[in-house]
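Purpose: get a first structural picture of the assembly so the mutagenesis plan has something to point at.
Setup: three entries, given in the order below. No constraints added.
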Amino acid sequence: MSRTKRDIIPYLFLVIPVLIYIIWVIAPMFYTFYLSLTNWNGLTTPEFIGFKNYTKLFNDKVFYISLINNLKWLGVFITVPVALGLGLAMMLNTAIPGEKFFKMTFYMPMVLAMVVSGLIWGWMYHPKGGLINTVIVSAGVMAKGPGWLSDRDIVLWSIIIVAIWRQVGYVMVLYLAGLKSINPQLLEAATVDGANRWQVFWGIILPLLTPVTVIVLVISVIDSLRAFDLVSVMTRGGPANASSVLANFMYIESFNNYKMGYGAAIAVILFLISLSFIALYLWRVMQDEMEY
Amino acid sequence: METIREYFKSPWRVLVYIILILSAFLWLVPVITGLITSLRTYDEILINGFISWPETITFENFKTAWDRGGLSRYLPNSFIITLPSIVLTMFLSSLAAYALARFKFPANRVIFFTFVGGMMLPFQVLLLPVFKLTDFLGLYDTYWGLIFFHTAFQLGFCTFMLRNYMRTVPGEIIEAARIDGCSEIGIWWKIMLPLTLPAIAAIATLEFTWIFNDYLWAIVLTSNDALKPVTAGLATLQGQFVTDWPVIVAGALIGTLPTLLVFLFLQRYFIEGLTLGSSK
Amino acid sequence: MNLKKMQIVFGLVLVLSLILSACTPETVTVVEEVEVPVEVEVEVPVEKEVFVEKQTVIYNSMNGDPDPRAADEEIVKRFMEANPDTEVIHSIVAHEDFKTAIRAYLTASTPPDVLTWFAGNRARFFIDNDQIMDISDVWESEGWNESYPKGFQAMSTVDGAQYFLPTSWYWWAVYYRVSVFEELGLEVPETWDEFLAVNETLKENGYTPIAIGTKYRWTAAAWFDYLNMRINGPQFHIDLMLGKESYDDPRVAEVFKYWRVLLDNGYFLEDAAAYSWSEALEPFIAGEAAMYLMGDFIRDSLPDEVEADLDFFRFPIIDPSMPIGEDAPTDGYFLSANAANPEAAKAFLAYLGSVEVQTYNAETLGRLPTNSGVDRSLFTESQQKGMELIDGADFVAQFYDRDTTPEMADEGMNAFMAFWDDPDSIETLLADLEAARQEIFLEE
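Result (structure tokens, whole complex):
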């Protein structure tokens, strides 16, 4: 095989996927960048207005509420579900009666459509008749249960709990997969050498799981920035924007208020935030690539 | 029986088991609530409250959702959209992944990072342009409009996962095949694909749930009722004026069943596949 | 890389997508045929022979709720029976989604021909952007200029031409549980003081005076509409909606003072923001809450035994010197400007506006018809009472989110929710609203 021909081969493999990707994902993304510089109501031709949308955005209270909510979501998402998922995976990694049942149980929320989860949890959170408050009140914890979805201080956390409920199973499956790939002899050897469970976990298992952890974190970041469906179904960002996140804010501005240019500007910011997180990750991948 | 007694000899294991049972119960509560709800009537729930002893158990809600809610029509649509999307995505991403995993060439990193970057994209960003594009291509209000978008958008994630997986395939196998005179496409087809099958099965399972559960794109890229997938169909059950929750929940449960079954069926692949996909 | 190869592949992808799109269901073929209208007898060799002789009308509606949905489907069925040469392709889209997707529908290369929509500002926007077809000829030929009251005609007219077909409307009022009022010996309140007294009595006796679910915000907007019209008069209200009056006007602040009395006294249902409007019906149905400010569609969601115990009264008068304004939203239809088959679409529209269809809707759904040709003796007692309510009004508004622009409505309703949560913040909220108003209406 000649040298030049050999050089072309990877491109032949790539041409169709990359083209499709460019047409449906990359080009539209750049079009969104352009739209963010226009005033567009979705019907007329977009009118170029420079960075006006952005100056307006940076003076918009709702933008900051949404941004901070996204960051809270992200902070919780890269810790709580990861820890819970890892914990469950550790517990379920050994042969245990009913193993299949447990795995199914924790994975199930992930299979449900977001719309369905949001709906069912909306019931759970129902202020008076909802399961949670019924339990709280009848157990005598409080005379009146909290307004899970109506109290501005709680509402975001109520939604995040649902998101965690969904996410833990996913994380668990990934960690279980990672754990299966660890050579048991390695652990046996460590135990023989006198290491206790805790030392084995911190000293051997966790470091070996690092690649899985990276994937888990990446997925958590993506999911927390994309958060939309649950908010949209459960509160629509309310009350008074208390549970607004950027994706939802963008959707409402674009499609409810028909400020498509403004919505595009929010989308661009959301993208830039994602990018800064992914840059970190890419940098890590790059380090590995060097060894390869 | 003996093995179970053996298992619980250690008190530590008993503790773990109790924790597991409690968490599993917590995890199941919402779904059980949904199930019970779907078996009751709306009027009764409104009058007696959500948490009350059911006076009547009825499957009427499922029937209503299926017939009047049009789920009998929407459910097949979901498959018509989801299955080709998965086949196309897996096919195309395995091509791209192979090139990215096994070849050194100048644009490799740029292309790889573009895929990874795109997969992180908050997809709401693409809503307007993709609608315009789909309309421009004459695919608006067709199954293919949705299929193409899902295929394209999921390429990022699938390529990323598959490429990582393919890198774990020992290079010797491929070199050996090359020396035997196997063409690159032959290597991809005869060696790479079979070896990546567990990963493909796993990712396809994930993709199935994602594409099947999509709602946003379904309502933006189609307007004809006859084409709508089950998620968008469910939403038409839920209008502004009347919200009959038991029927909606019943419909939601029907709509969830396929993803649940697919997961059950492919669970083994799923776990095995991700083993390598997630550990570089 | 090889540019030629790239072009070939790109071409392939395009061709492929075209071929693929050609094998999707009938609609596509159908739409293409539409370009040869009326010529029924012409034999066109098209793959899908079933529809060759038929004209098609694409009809998208937002009547997703069970009862209206059934009625909608029935109407389409009847039309097709009467017009066997026309095929109506009917899609029902959920209400909220329809509002979101309508721009996509209208700007698509094959837009639906007939669409449901709201009268007022929300239709005006599309008319101004040339998305709606001039249907003056239908108004003329169907004699609607005579058979529709002047108000409805004016609502549909822009620059002397008609663009909209209003078909039904409903009223807003304070609905209440008769049994609860009887038990406590309460009279229907006519003034604000009487209304407050009723609330107080209800509360003292352990009832939630007013049910409301503000999850989707618009229920709160109804309170703003009514308080503003009762305190400042309908003229001020509508000028505010049109951006001609400012939100930092002391008269607007006054509205919130009245509103606050109800909030501070705890007359509204607790945790209102957690409920959609229909979830908030729960205490109303259970007989724990006594009143609900709502449109007449409230009936659609009530069990029969509760409906029998239901009555309504006019929102109490606050300033007797002010003319009386009421909210009575009107729904209807329009044709998209780029409708593929205007003739068939107009025929369908004519049917939708006919006495026959309006009578059917009035009977099955209890909506009030716009066509004066509908026999009023068919109306139920409650419909009669609703019409009297509106007849007694000096001014009829649509509703907050139909009278003002979508952006302003969004800002406004968010401010209502923030006020609900923290009434002390009203000064800042109004200042923000005023800033938003200036920006929104300056842009126009």
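Chain A touches chain C through 38 residues (CB under 8 Å).
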